[in-house]
Amino acid sequence: MITPNSKTLVLLVLLVLGFTGVWRLQQGIDAQRAALHEERDELVLRSGKLLKAMSLEYTPLLADFYWTRVVQYYGDKRARHDLHFELLSPLLDLTTTLDPHLLVAYRFGSTFLSEPSPRGAGHPEQGIALLERGIQANPEYWRFYQDMGFIYYFELKDYAKASAAFEKGSEYPDSQIWMKVMAAKVAAEGESLSTSIFLWRQVYETTKDPQVKENALTHLQLLGVQEDCKQLDKLADEFQKRTGRRPTRVSELVQVGMLPQLPVDPMGYPYVFGPDGKAALNLNSPLLEQQLLHQNAK
Amino acid sequence: MKRAGAVALNTFREAVRDRVLYNLVFFALLMMAAAIFVGQISIGIEELVIKSLGLSAISVIGLLIAVFIGVGLVYKEMDKRTLYALLAKPVRRWEFLLGKFGGLVLTLAVNTVAMAAGLLAALVYVKQHLERTDTVLFVAIYFILLKLMLVVALALLFSCFSTPLLAILYTSAFYVAGLFVEEMRTFQFATPNPAASWLLRGLSYLLPNFENFNVMAAAAHGREIPGALILQNTAYAALYCIIVLLIAAAVFSRRNLK
Amino acid sequence: MAGATIEIENLTKDYPYGFLHLKKKRSLEGLTMQVEDGEVFGFLGPNGAGKSTTIKLLVGLIFPDAGTASILGKPITDIEMHRDIGYLPEQPYFYDYLTAAEVLDYFARFHDLTAADRSERVKRMLKKVGLETAGKIQLRKYSKGMLQRVGLAQAILHDPKVVILDEPMSGLDPIGRREVRDIILELKREGRTVLFSTHILSDAEMLCDRVGVIVGGKLRGVGAPGEIVGMKTQGMEILFELPASTATSTASANAAGILAKAAKTGDRYRLQVTEEELYAALEQLRSAGAKILSVTQVKATLEEYFMHLIEADRAQAAAVEVSGK
Ligand SMILES: Nc1ncnc2c1ncn2[C@@H]1O[C@H](COP(=O)(O)OP(=O)(O)O)[C@@H](O)[C@H]1O
Ligand SMILES: [Mg+2]
After folding, report:
1. Domains of chain C
2. Nearest-CA distance from A168 to chain B in Å?
C-alpha cells in the first residue's frame, strides 16, 4: 500500500537524483561549450545612441545593466587571468552614453583603462578621453581632475599636465586642499615616492568600489616595499662602511644593533638581501608576484 | 499511455482550431521579405542575416506559443470545468498532464518543422544551393525545440497552481534567469560574501540553463557542433522535463478542483 | 465484499478559505450512507448543502479530510473504480471548439473501446439525448440545456454500472426534464444504480427508490420518499364555493366560525383542517349551502422542510453558544 507519505519520500528521492543528474550533465555541457570557443563577449550593438533609442523609457535600467556588465567583465577577466580587455572601452562607452551621469563608471573605467596589464587595458589615453567626456557631462564634479592628474602622473609621466589637472580641480570650491599642494609639488619635483604614496592613499581612502580599493592597496603596499628597500639599502651601505663587507642577511643588521628586529613587508614576510646585495622581497611573499608584474609593465 | 495520447491529440486539435498555426503565415512573410531585401541592405552577409533572423524568429515565435498556451493548459481546463467530466473517466491525473504536455510539444514540433522548411527555402533562394555546413542549422533548430519543451514543462507546472498571468511571470522569470546562469557563475567574483557566492553557484547549476541550447551564433557561421553536445543537451532537456513534470504531477494529484 | 454499491463512511470535507487558507469551512460532516444495487437514490438538499461536495469526493475531483468511500467494492482512490461509473458534473461545460460528436468520441477514448464501437456508441448516445441533428455543431453554439444533454450522453456512453448525476434536471425546460427523467428510469430498468442530486422535491419523488436529505453538510435522514422529508400529510384542504344567494342567509351564520378561517380567492374559498376535523367541517359547509369542489391532502413543501431543519440548526447553535458562555 502506498501511503501519501511514502509517495512524498519517493518523490524527494527522485528529485535529488534528478538534480544530481542535471548537475553532472551541466558540467559536461559546460566543457563542450567551452570547446566550442564561442566568444560570449560579443557585443551585438556598439552604438550607444542606437541602444539609447531602442531602450525606450528604460534607459537608466539599461545603463545599470551595462554597468553591471562592465564590473563583471573586468572581474571575470581578472579571475581568469585573461589579459585582453578589448571590450572594456566599448562597454564603458555604452554605459556612459546611456547614463552620462553615472560618475562611478568614469572613475572606475578611467582607472582600469589606464592601468597597465595585467591590472588594466593599458590605454591611458582612453582613460583620459573617458574622463574628458565625464567632465563635459558633469562639470561640477572635481574628482575627475584628481583622476586625470593621476593618470598623467603615474601612467603618462607628464608632470606638467598632471600639475595642471590638479590645479584645475583645486579651483572647485568644494575640492580638497591637498589638490593645490599636489599641483605645486608635482610641478616642482615630478615623480616622488611621497607624492605617489599620497595619491594612492587618497584613492584608497575615498573609493567605495572594492576592486578599486584592492588595486590601490596593492599599489600602496608596493610603494611601501620600495621605500623599505631603499632604507635597507642605506643601512647596508652603512654596514659596509663599518665592517668592510656587504651584509648577506638582514639578520646581520639586527645582530650589530642597526635594527631592533627583522623588518617585514606589508604581508608579514621578512625582507632579504638578493644576490646583487640589494634589499628585496622574500621569495615566499605574495607581493613578489605583484611587484614583478608591475615592473614588467613599466 | 493511450489515454495520455488521447489528451495530447485533443490539445493539438485545440491549438489548431484556435488558429495557433496561423503564426506560420507571419513567419513565411518575414522570411520572404528578408530573402528579398537582404541582398540590398547587407552585401556579403546575406546568408548570415537570413540564418540568424530565421533562427531568432523560430525561437521567439516558439517561446510565445509555449508560454502563452502553456500557462493555460491546466488552468483553463480547471477554470472552465472541462476537466470535471474527464477526470471521472479512468484516467490518472499524471496521464492528463503528460497528455497536455505532449499535445503542446507536438504543436510546437509541427510549427517548428514548418518554420524550418521556410528558413531553408529562404536560404536556397538567397544562396542558390545548400552546403554541408548548413546542416548545423538543423542542430540549432533541434536545440530550440528542446528549449521549448523545457519551457512548456515549466509553464505547465505553474499552470497547475496559479493564474495564467502569474504563470506567465513565473515562466518568463525562470527563462530569463536560465539565460543568465553563466553570468551568475562569474558574478561570484564580484560578491565578496562567500555564502551568497556559494548559493549563486549552486543555483546556477540547478536552474534550467537555457543558454545550453543557444548555438545560434555557431549555426549562423556554419561551425560544427560536437555530437557529444547534441547528446548531452538531449539528455539534459529530457531529464529536466521529467523533473518538472514529476513536480507538476505531485502538485496536481493532490489538488482539489473547485 | 460489502453489499452496498456505494458505501460512504464518515466522509468529511473542509474547504480552506481566507488569508493563506488558514481558516476552514466544514462543507460535509461525517456523512455515512449506502446506495444499494440497482436503486435510484435521490440526494436532496438546498443549495450549499454539500451535495456537489459529496459527489465530487466520490468521483475523485476533490479529496476528503476524513472518512472513506467505495463504489462497487473498490475504494474511490482506485483508478479501476472509474471504469464502471458515469458522472455528470453540475452545470457541465465541454471543449467549445469541438462538436458534440467529437467530444463524445474523445471521452470514449478513455474506455477500452474499438474505433467502430466508439462511433456506433456516439451515434446512439446523441440519438438518446436528442442531439442527433446537432452533433456536427461546435459546442460554443450550444445552449445550457443542450450542454446538459451532452453531459448526460458522456456519462452513460460506456454502459457504466453506476451513474452519478449532479443536478441533472437543472437548466432544462419541462420537456427536457421529462426526457432526463425517462433516461433515468431507463437506466434503472437496465439494472444500473443511479445516484443523483437535486433540490427539487417532485423530481425525487417521481424517480427515487430512496432519498437522502442533506442540509448544512449533515445527512438528516434516509428513506423512501414517502417516509422522509416530513412528507406525511399535514392535513386536508377543502376547496369550495359559496353561492351569492346563500352568502348572507342565516344558514351561513352557522358556518361563520369556519368561514373566518378560510382564505378567499375570487369566488372560491380554501380551508385547511386536520384529518379528524374533516367530516365535521364538510358537514358544516354543506349545511351552509357551500358547493364542495375538491378535497386534497396537504404536504409540506421541501422548502418548508429545509427551512425547518435550518432553523432547528440555528436554534441549536444559539443554544450551544449560550451554554458555552
Ligand atoms: N471550492 C469551494 N471553496 C470553498 N467553499 C466551497 C467550495 N465549494 C463548495 N463550497 C462550500 O461548501 C458548501 C457545499 O457546497 P456544495 O456541495 O456545492 O453544495 P450543493 O449542495 O449546492 O451542491 C457550500 O457552503 C459552499 O459554499
Ligand atoms: Mg451543487
Report:
1. 4-226 (3.40.50.300), 233-299 (3.30.70.980)
2. 34
ipTM value for the complex: 0.89
For residue C56, list chain B residues with Cβ-Cβ distance below 8 A.
84, 257
Last residue of a domain, one of A80, A106, A141: A141
Kindly give the distance from the C-alpha atom of residue B79 to the centroid of ligand 2, in angstroms, as a whole number: 17
**In-domain check, residue A71:** yes
**Residue list, ligand 1 pocket, CB within 6 Å:** B 258; C 15, 17, 25, 27, 45, 47-53
pTM (whole model) above 0.80: no
Q: Is residue A61 domain-resident?
A: yes
CB contact under 8 A, A76 and B242: no
Parent domain of A131: 46-141
- Please give the distance, rounded to the nearest whole angstrom, from the Cα atom of residue C79 to the centre of ligand 1: 25
In this structure, the residue with its CA closest to atom 26 of ligand 1 is C48
Predicted confidence (pLDDT) per residue in B48-103, tens digit: 778 878 888 899 999 999 999 999 999 999 999 999 999 999 999 999 999 999 99
Write the pLDDT tens digit of every residue in B144-188.
Answer: 999 999 999 999 999 998 999 999 999 999 998 888 887 777 665
Peptide bond connecting A118 to the previous residue in cis, omega within 30 degrees of 0: yes
Is residue B187 within 8 angstroms of chain A, CB to CB? yes
